[in-house]
Amino acid sequence: MTFNLNFIYFQINPFLPIVFCWIGIFLFFGGISFWLFKKGNRIKRNLKTDPEMKFFQNVEIHVVSKSKLSYNFSIPCKVDLAIGRDEIHFLPGKFNVFILTNLIPSSVNLKTHEIEIHPEFSKSLKLKFNSDALQAFFKKFYFLRIDFECSLTCESEQKREDLLQVIKMYNK
User: Domains of the chain, with CATH numbers?
Assistant: First the structure.
């Protein structure tokens, strides 16, 4: 008899099942984000041993991805950048549930001719590249050629100029 009363309650009031579904979805994506955060920290530890890597912390990233079928925005979050001779690495700064939407952890090959880097505003840079230049664990999910636009916003104009100089130095 108790089972039937609970079943009737869920048929009349769908609030609890909807809340439990949303909590489940949030925990699922939170678990993926935590795994990506751990993976990004392992990559960051390995990159810190390379003396040629230049690191920039607390850079806000906002990613827009475009394909022939869709147009997606990410939720901005703070990341760490590691810039080397061949690549820009996007690494997690601190844990954020929305890491999954921001291409983190991943890297972009600077030596491809399809990457564009230019100043956008006083504190930000715009990077444009396609999925061919991207190196990430989820790249195999991109069946179509996808174009990305990353807006990197620094804490100050000086930090943005330093970032731009390092990118130009390695992009020759």
Answer: 3-170 (2.30.29.30)
